[in-house]
Amino acid sequence: MSDTPLLDRLLPPRDTRSGYLIRLSRPRFWLYLAGPVVVGVAYAAGSPAELFAPVAVALFAYFLLPANVFLYGVNDIFDRDVDATNPKKDDREVRYRGDRTVPLAVAASALAGLAFLPLLPPAGTVAMLGFLALGAGYSAPPLRFKTTPALDSLSNGLYVLPGAVAYAALAGEAPPLLALAGGWLWAMAMHTFSAIPDIEPDRRADIETTATRLGERRAYAYCAGLWALAAVAFAVLHPVLGAVFGFYPVFVAGIVGAGVEVDRAYWWFPVVNTLAGTVLTNAALWVMLYG
After folding, report:
1. Residue 1 forms part of a structural domain
2. For 93-112, b where at least 16 C-beta lie within 10 A, e where not — what string?
3. Which domain holds residue 197?
4. CA distance 110 to 71
5. Are 24 and 70 in contact (CB under 8 A)?
6. pLDDT digits (tens, 9 = 90+) for 71-98
7. Residue 236 lies in a domain
8. For residues 69 and 106, is the Cβ–Cβ distance under 8 A?
9. Contact indicator for 163, 63 with CB cutoff of 8 Å
């Protein structure tokens, strides 16, 4: 049996341009951007037909692949030196080696996002521009939020913005403030948790992040605290929403208590987040269909 991960075997070969760009976009994490679109559409739609409105479908397609090429392409371009010693790049991801295809793909993906602006209400325009600005500023100088503790975590609320864009596109207004705040806190915690496996590579490269500043144990506590606050914010909106997000601090406590290596637990979250998003979406659909 091959040691190559199944997803990697299903993709085009690494040495092809399409295979390289798809891997650069982190297909395991595609739903981190596209998933909020589904949730935002489900809560904004007034009827089943609106779930498949052209703008909703187009936004899902954009945040599924082009937006991920943009986000992770910028990251890889400006992290080239750091990634040279990052073990995550050895099998599940790819290293940027100066291929000019990547900057071109990043620019095209950003322009594709800007092309939605005429279709969006003011709240959606702000959310889309916020996503593109934070996506670039996180990795690219002079801001490079990822190298500033606290700002690296705070800026990663950008993962909620695709949902805000989609919600605004259908509802014509911004989603509830508590939903944005809770989602932002959730995304901040997800970012710091994902940075825990990088603590040692980042320290060797003299890069400071929230995770390197806190260390592994305190980073776990930081994530659990943010997820608990997110659960409180969503519980105010509805107890079911609070229960979904309340699972996260419990899950972290279980990881720590069982002594699970963070490098292993890190790869569980695409499944965990997909299940959470499925519950949130089904709750919205239930209300739509049955009141």
Report:
1. no
2. bbebeeeeebeebbeebbeb
3. 6-290
4. 9
5. no
6. 999 988 887 666 555 555 555 666 667 6
7. yes
8. yes
9. no
Residue 254 lies inside a defined structural domain of this protein: yes
Which DSSP state fits 86? -
Model pLDDT for residues 186-196, shown as the tens digit of each residue: 999 999 999 99
Structural tokens at position 237: 């909106």
Return the CATH number at 192.
Answer: 1.10.600
The whole-model pTM stands at 0.90
| Sign of the dihedral through C-alpha 138, 17, 94, 99 | negative
Task: Look at the block and give the residue holding tokens 């590579």.
Answer: 201
Residue 159 lies in a domain: yes
What one-letter code names the amino acid at 188? M
Q: In terms of Cα–Cα distance, which of 121, 59, 123, 41 is closest to 288?
A: 41
HSE at residue 146, side-chain half, CA atoms within 13 A, is 25
* N- to C-terminal Cα separation, the chain: 50
The structure tokens listed for 281 are 């979406």
The total of structural domains in the chain comes to: 1
- DSSP 8-state secondary structure symbol assigned to residue 120: S
